[in-house]
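in:
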């Protein structure tokens, strides 16, 4: 993998979230949890390149994001699509879900949270802000259809410290 400047991110970011999915991982190489994410954004705010992720309160990974000062987001070749589907549906509360996939952890270069040997894109991020989503802010009320259980996401912003790609 080679490191690239964040301003040279070599992907269509809408397609990345919508169709490719990303694997969010927080914690340490010795104790972490991961979940597949398909909602988020990449941009520039507070004079920093950032990624914005959202995690529902019942997700096991949220505990790890809360306790960590960093997280990684990784994209994979299509052959790992089934692994990402598993990691998005199996809870880490029930055991070592990573062992049910073909993915392997590796130490990240600039953050404590690990990344993956099989990834073709790695974003290493330092957590810089969070806020609970407030349903009163939905101008488009159809968005509420995504929250039948009133389990509104917590929004996290992470400064993108490093980008690695093939």
């Amino acid at each position: 993998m080679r490191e690239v400047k964040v301003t040279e991110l070599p992907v269509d970011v809408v397609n990345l979230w919508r169709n490719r999915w990303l694997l969010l991982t927080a914690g340490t190489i010795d104790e972490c949890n991961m979940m597949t994410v398909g909602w988020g954004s990449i941009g520039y705010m507070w004079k920093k390149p950032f990624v914005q992720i959202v995690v529902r309160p019942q997700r096991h990974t949220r505990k790890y994001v809360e306790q960590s000062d960093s997280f990684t987001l990784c994209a994979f070749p299509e052959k790992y699509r089934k692994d990402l589907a598993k990691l998005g549906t199996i809870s880490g509360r029930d055991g070592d879900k990573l062992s049910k996939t073909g993915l392997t952890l590796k130490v990240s270069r600039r953050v404590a949270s690990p990344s993956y040997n099989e990834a073709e894109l790695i974003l290493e991020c330092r957590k810089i802000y969070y806020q609970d989503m407030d349903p009163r802010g939905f101008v488009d009320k159809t968005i509420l259809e995504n929250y039948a259980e009133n389990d509104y996401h917590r929004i996290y912003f992470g400064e993108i410290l490093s980008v690695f790609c093939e």
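note: The two ends are 5 Å apart (CA to CA).
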